[in-house]
Amino acid sequence: MTTYLPTLKQLQYLVALRDAGHFGRAADACYVTQSTLSAGIRELETLIGVTLVERTRRVVRFTPLGERIADKARRVLREADELGEIARAAGRPLTGEMRMSVIPTIAPFLLPQVLPQLRRQYPELKLFLREEPTGPACEALHSGRTDCVLLALPYACGEVEVEPLFADRLFVAFPETETLPGSGPVMADDIDETRLLLLEDGHCLRDHALAVCATSELRGQAAMLGTSLHTIVQMVENGLGVTMLPEMAIGAGILRGTHIDARPIDAERAERRIALVWRKASPRERDYRLLAGVLRAAARGEDAEITDKGR
Description:
Blueprint: H1 8-20, H2 23-30, H3 34-48, E1 53-55, E2 60-62, H4 64-89, E3 96-102, H5 107-121, E4 125-131, H6 134-143, E5 148-153, E6 160-175, E7 186-187, E8 196-199, H7 204-213, E9 225-226, H8 229-237, E10 242-246, H9 247-251, E11 260-266, E12 271-279, H10 285-299
Helix pairs in contact: 1-2, 1-3, 1-4, 2-3, 5-10
Organism: Sphingomonas spermidinifaciens
Pfam families: HTH_1 (PF00126), LysR_substrate (PF03466)
Family: Belongs to the LysR transcriptional regulatory family.
């Protein structure tokens, strides 16, 4: 008896439709036409003899069985992807494709230092970057849409391997026309919490700032919420309040050309810990640790030594 198995392409189409919730967007994500994607999913339904997706003109709705099969398909695709990772891991270090998610409060400040060094030391590495908040980045990691995540701890990212990189101190930034007590590090109690400008929910730096103030009531008091650190800096420049900035952003020149002062914060949790994380038992662990070494060295303004202890 001949058994016909679903193809990886059919499973890819199904997972893309589950993620996008729209045939056109799913087709774009798979770089195929909408008719090709739709036909592939119909072939899959015919092959297994069940309806996976209820189609109407306006709504794409997965059946309960379709939901289960899409979840299983995602795991199958991740396992298939790891076959390629095993082959790459057996070859030269940091070659081939790698997908890395980076949170928005790190990407514009650290990557300009890192990418030239990576291109110089590992020219055969094709690094595809995704800038997204920590929550979606961790979800993408566990679903297999990304290979590793550059983020800031503490954050609960699930069962992952963690390679700590460096500590990133937090500074309070305020208009030059204002004064804060003393001339050195600022005590957390001296920060006017009612004037503290924060990032929107979903950015881990917001939670790190709240941890410094050791208060949860501040969530409802913030008068202004910024979509990015650059937006918040403009708010401070216009006298709308004060904010907390990571040291890497200040070092990268985010305050250049402004009339804003910044001073370190003297508090127990006035820092975030930058780290690279990846799925446990990944066959490319060696590559991720090498990448972490490059990231760590670039943050110090140094060139990482090209070493490969696994060879």
